[in-house]
Amino acid sequence: MDRIRIKGGVPLEGVIAIGGAKNAALPLMTASLLTPETLTLENVPDLADVATMSNLLVQHGAAISMGEASSAGGHRVELSAAHITSITAPYDLVRKMRASVLVLGPLVARCGRARVSLPGGCAIGTRPIDLHISGLRQLGAEIELAGGYVEARAPKGLRGAEILFPSVSVGATEHLLMAATLAKGETLLVNAAREPEITDLAHCLVAMGAQISGIGSDRLRVVGIEGLHGATHRIIPDRIETGTYIMAAAATAGEVRLTHTRSDFVTGLVRVLAEAGVEITATEDGVVVRRRGDHLDGVDVMTEPYPGYPTDLQAQFMALMTTAQGASMITETVFENRFMHVPELARMGANINVHGASAMVRGVPRLTGAPVMATDLRASVSLVIAGLVAEGETVINRVYHLDRGYERLEDKLSACGARIERLRDGA
Ligand code: UD1
């Protein structure tokens, strides 16, 4: 397995281009199952999760062609599911990536039945799919769980319904939004998630002919139609990649310009970082990040659904706070068990105590490099940030987690002066 070696202590200086949003790309790719015509997506990031989703869709019968990266970065991908040849999403593919369950709704809406493996355990909590299943049942699907699979049937098609989510779920909102586009009659999704990736999906579905109102709000209204058609859609910038590099720049006391992104997607983060002493200035196509003074101040943060502070930027913020002056209380409300980076950061000298859903970080003057283990995508990149700040050498094992969500991470950071390299398997 590849590893990443970082020699820390260099302030990042330079320009980083941000890619298309992974968490928008994955549901958008599954939307191609809703139509026999071609869906063309632009600004698709070249990531392991995108490859996993492609493999799954091909297995269902879709033809997928990925073009060369454009000069602005990002790929153009054509997805054509003219004929669905399999309605089964097998365990081997679904277990690799939870977002795979999103094929269930589109398949049952288009083909009247689908069989999708349950995703199984996940490093950041139990992450059930009960909201996905109960929502599809409300849309008229008959669902059974058998042999580790969700088996759904709607021989006469789905029908619209009012669905009230008892808690906010990004995936369940996307899932039911897609399914409702082909249901008979009207669907109302109440207490829907409002992440920009959901808005992006809704805009693409509208371009495919869907009738959706309330886009961007927590009440989405869908009037189902007979069939969707093809469309071309450009994926929004990745706000989590944006936030990650903002914090990498701030942690190393550097100055970095991020391009091909949007400052309005990271307002929650900008507010918190302003308090911590980081200056983030919006530009035409992104932001410039620099520190205001010679140190960072400890600030408290609580993760929440959008527009609150994102859970996917919690680990990176913790890495940033390890060397701030004073203390920072970080509370995780979206996922249970999302502090796996804590023992690894502690191995680098961080002072962190976890009590239930909160972690108290007391700033230390410096971190020191150490061999550490990546446990999930965002935890891994928090170790990269810590490694960039630490004195000496850090080696991060299990880098495949990073490859799921960060395109050319070493290239982007080394172009800003970081001493970072990938040690290929066996090196
Ligand atoms: C998506 C993102 C992920 C992000 C998360 C929260 C993608 C591909 N992934 O994940 O990066 O961290 O949103 O912003 O977009 N839950 C249930 N029952 C369900 C569904 C969810 O209890 O049926 C719970 C989860 O366990 C979790 C919470 O709801 O505690 C939020 O999860 P959800 O918003 O669904 O996250 P994902 O869509 O899986």
Written description of the protein model:
- By secondary structure, this protein is α/β, with parallel strands linked by helices.
- It is built from 14 helices and 24 strands.
- A four-stranded mixed beta sheet has the order 22-23-1-24. A four-stranded mixed beta sheet has the order 2-15-17-16.
- Helix 10 links the parallel strand 18 (301-302) and strand 19.
- The chain is globular, with a radius of gyration of 22 Å.
- Uridine-diphosphate-N-acetylglucosamine binds at residues 23, 26, 98-99, 125, 127-132, 167, 169-172, 193, 197, 311-312, 334-335.
SSE blueprint:
Blueprint: E1 3-7, E2 13-17, H1 22-30, E3 38-44, H2 48-59, E4 63-69, E5 75-80, E6 88-89, H3 91-94, H4 104-111, E7 113-117, H5 130-138, E8 142-146, E9 149-153, E10 162-164, H6 170-180, E11 186-190, H7 196-207, E12 211-213, E13 219-223, E14 231-234, H8 239-251, E15 255-259, H9 267-276, E16 278-283, E17 286-291, E18 301-302, H10 314-321, E19 327-331, H11 341-347, E20 351-355, E21 358-362, E22 371-373, H12 377-389, E23 393-397, H13 400-403, H14 409-414, E24 419-423
Parallel strand pairs: 2-15, 3-14, 6-7, 10-11, 18-19, 22-23
Antiparallel strand pairs: 1-23, 1-24, 3-5, 4-5, 7-9, 8-9, 11-13, 12-13, 15-17, 16-17, 19-21, 20-21
Helix pairs in contact: 1-2, 1-7, 4-6, 5-6, 6-7, 8-10, 8-12, 10-12
